[in-house]
Specification:
Shape of chain A: globular
Oligomer: heterodimer
Number of strands of chain B: 5
Number of helices of chain A: 14
Structural class of chain A: alpha/beta
Shape of chain B: globular
Structural class of chain B: alpha+beta
Order of helices and strands of chain A: HEHEHEHEHHEHEHHEEEHHHHHE
Radius of gyration of chain A: 20 Å
Largest interface: A-B, 33 and 32 residues
Largest sheet of chain A: 9 strands, mixed
Number of strands of chain A: 10
Strand content of chain B: 25-35%
Helix content of chain B: 25-40%
Chain lengths: 408, 92
């Protein structure tokens, strides 16, 4: 039997089809979260039509993509949202969608509870209205809790409560877990990225070094009970790996399709530098996934650069590509939240005004920017890991002598 | 479930499981449990392909030309897949 190559290497070199992908259906949103990674607010007139979206689903079915993580914006604002969900599940593409809960009425909850092929994530960024609403907007805590009540009352077990970890809510970890237990839901914690509007609040909201340590200890203590989307592998630099594959899936096993059909390496990298193509091109999504130069490059060997001398590099792999890019750091250097403390000095050398800005801004009150290409030179080698929304979320470290493994 | 009996019972891939062949083996996704699993071996994939028709898992292994010396490894893999509902026991 041929088990010479560790499985994680196969993933790092990319699969013929993504395992899953994030698909943001619309930039429209009823909220205006301060850290929105896609700078959502207003619908983009170029968004995929119902027929175009169905054609993408047809392709995903042919490629045997197991499921899509649907987000936005607030995806349920699309008038054809349920039509697309039904179309996907009828075509063997599972759906997991993220929502602020606005449309999760008792009727919708009952319908969701009846489907094996649809999973729901309710976003919540504080265990109190004050902390949550400060980031997500007034009334958003009550909306999310009402949605959870409806899902629990309908008997939907195991929906996800999805939290972006910030300086303001690290102290709420136990309270989030209690909330999840109360609704028979599962807690999912992910990393705040300086992406989209997150770039504007990152300095203020990203966890302090002490809080990162606290989070790491908490995650180790809770193990596989709590999902992380492989979000925090930069914390593996502390010593122990967290559950999961600790792999950056960007362009290798995951990617993002945005509302206008643009395909990016990952949901946190909405910038021309990480744009691989568009599903409207003649080759469709499959053509982009298989042939884009960017993705080919991401699937090649990666260099450690400034991190090569660090003892933690094998564990953290230099951290998250998007976090570095949007803080102005070189991609082959330390993560801005490097647990060995190499992020701060690196950030201090970044010249003000040179930090790349996210490509699109659909925030309300912002005029659409003219569509122009931003010339960006990329470091030829990208770090070898990093990300969230990884389908690998929860994969066990793989026993080298086992023929089959299972996630969790 | 007695460990030793896995090979001597009839199994099939769970109807809610999607199997995707890969160069290294295969990926399995269970739509009910929302778990992702992987097979690190093409021959194990061949065993799974025979499983639904074979009278026992042992027969499926034979059809997939598993060497007798390797059987315990396949038994362990099948047991793990059964324990996570990727496989379902057949009564007929």
């Amino acid at each position: 039997m041929s088990v010479a190559t560790p499985l994680v290497e196969h993933f790092a070199h990319g699969l013929d089809s993504p395992i899953c992908l994030t698909w943001e259906l619309t930039y429209a949103c009823n909220l205006a979260c301060r850290h929105c990674l896609s700078s959502s607010g207003r619908r983009d007139p170029r968004e995929l039509t119902t027929d175009e979206a169905k054609a993408v689903i047809d392709e995903l079915e042919r490629m045997q993509v197991f499921y899509v993580n649907i987000g936005g914006g607030e995806p349920t604002l699309r008038p054809d949202f349920w039509e697309l969900v039904d179309y996907a599940t009828a075509h063997h593409v599972g759906v997991k969608f993220s929502t602020n809960g606005y449309r999760i009425t008792p009727e919708v909850a009952a319908r969701l509870a009846g489907s094996d092929y649809v999973d729901v994530q309710i976003s919540l960024d504080g265990a109190t209205p004050a902390v949550n609403d400060d980031v997500r907007g007034e009334g958003s805590y009550a909306t999310a809790i009402a949605a959870m009540e409806n899902l629990a009352a309908a008997g939907f077990e195991g929906f996800k409560i999805s939290v972006v970890c910030t300086r303001e809510n690290i102290g709420h970890l136990d309270a989030f877990k209690a909330l999840a237990d109360r609704y028979r839901a599962q807690l999912r914690l992910t990393r705040l990225r300086p992406s989209g509007r997150g770039a504007d609040v990152w300095d203020e909201l990203h966890p302090t070094a002490g809080q990162q340590r606290e989070l790491y200890e908490w995650l180790l203590a809770h193990g596989e009970d709590v999902l992380t989307g492989d979000s925090f592998f930069h914390l593996a630099g502390y010593g122990e790996s967290l559950p999961g594959l600790n792999l950056c899936g960007a362009g290798r096993v995951v990617c993002l399709i945005d509302p206008v059909g643009d395909v990016y390496a990952c949901p946190f990298a909405i910038h021309d530098a990480f744009l691989a193509g568009n599903v409207r091109a003649p080759g469709g999504f499959a053509g982009v996934w298989r042939d884009s130069e960017l993705f080919q490059e991401l699937r090649g060997p990666q260099a450690a650069g400034a991190c090569s001398a660090c003892s933690a590099y094998d564990a953290c792999r230099g951290g998250c590509m998007a976090a570095k890019f949007f803080t102005g750091l070189p991609l082959d250097g330390p993560d801005p939240e490097c647990v060995k403390g190499h992020g701060e000095p690196a950030l201090a050398t970044v010249e003000p005004g040179t930090v790349p800005r996210p490509s699109g801004d659909h925030s309300k009150g912002v005029r659409p920017a003219p569509v122009t290409a931003v010339p960006v030179s990329l470091t030829p080698r990208r770090p070898d890991r990093a990300c969230d929304e990884s389908p690998l979320a929860g994969l066990d470290p793989i026993p080298s002598n086992a023929l089959a493994g299972t996630d969790r | 479930m007695t460990e030793a009996s896995v090979l001597d019972r009839a199994w099939g891939v769970h109807p809610q499981v999607s199997v995707r062949p890969e160069r290294f083996g295969a990926l399995l996704y269970h739509f009910g449990t929302r778990r992702l699993s992987f097979l690190k071996d093409r021959r194990l994939l061949a065993v799974l392909e025979h499983l639904g028709e074979a009278p026992t898992a042992r027969a499926a292994c034979e059809q997939a030309e598993v060497e007798p010396a390797a059987l315990p490894a396949y038994e362990a893999a099948l047991a793990r897949l059964a324990a996570t509902d990727m496989l379902e026991e057949r009564t007929s």
